[in-house]
């Protein structure tokens, strides 16, 4: 009887989590579209990460998810767009430089340096919005802290990459995930391992 009860509780919790992920997915799409796609992407993404951070910290979750999501995207609209669009512009510029280098310049050392910078920029992107969600900092300090987290949190960074690949791999076999739950599932490993990296650095900072 106890085993059946435990199985029922587990099924209920799994169903509850699945419903939460689906709701986050559709809310993300709604607010991305509401922001004109380009200006809605980063506020909506930061809000999903913030929701996961609330879960990880075991804080009370909002009773009305739509109202909370709307409030958070409005609150974070300008700064998250400034951070995200600048980071996207940097990555785009590095990508263009890489293409020019490989096609016209064909300098191995320059190409290697640009490749390292581009990969570093991608990895910094994993931490940029989590740092923004966690702290209230001057603008450029967000980039510095995201860079430092990338440097000192190699296991977490590798785990993020593996998590993103696993979710993407799963979606190729279950395409329905792309339509009902892909975005929160993709952001979950990024959020979780960024949260672990942030907590680790905070603990080390407090010890010193």
UniProtKB/TrEMBL annotation:
The chain crosses the membrane at residues 12-31, 77-96, 108-133, 145-167, 173-195. Keywords: Membrane, Transmembrane, Transmembrane helix. It comes from Enterococcus gallinarum. This is DUF624 domain-containing protein.
């Amino acid at each position: 009887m106890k085993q059946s009860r435990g199985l029922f509780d587990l099924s209920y919790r799994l169903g509850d989590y699945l419903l939460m992920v689906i709701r986050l997915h559709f809310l993300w799409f709604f607010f991305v579209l509401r922001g004109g796609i380009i200006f809605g992407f980063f506020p909506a993404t930061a809000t999903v990460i913030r929701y996961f951070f609330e879960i990880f910290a075991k804080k009370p979750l909002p009773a009305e998810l739509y109202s909370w999501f709307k409030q958070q995207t409005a609150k974070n609209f300008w700064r998250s767009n400034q951070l995200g669009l600048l980071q996207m512009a940097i990555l785009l510029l590095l990508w263009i430089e890489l293409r020019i280098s490989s096609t016209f310049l064909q300098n191995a050392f320059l190409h290697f340096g640009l490749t390292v910078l581009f990969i570093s920029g991608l990895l910094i992107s994993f931490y940029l919005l989590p740092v923004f969600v966690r702290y209230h900092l001057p603008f450029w300090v967000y980039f510095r802290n995201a860079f430092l987290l990338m440097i000192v949190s190699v296991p977490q960074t590798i785990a993020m990459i593996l998590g993103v690949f696993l979710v993407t791999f799963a979606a190729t076999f279950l395409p329905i995930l792309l339509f009902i739950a892909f975005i929160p599932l993709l952001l979950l490993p990024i959020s979780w391992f960024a949260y672990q990296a942030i907590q680790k650095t905070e603990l080390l900072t407090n010890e010193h």
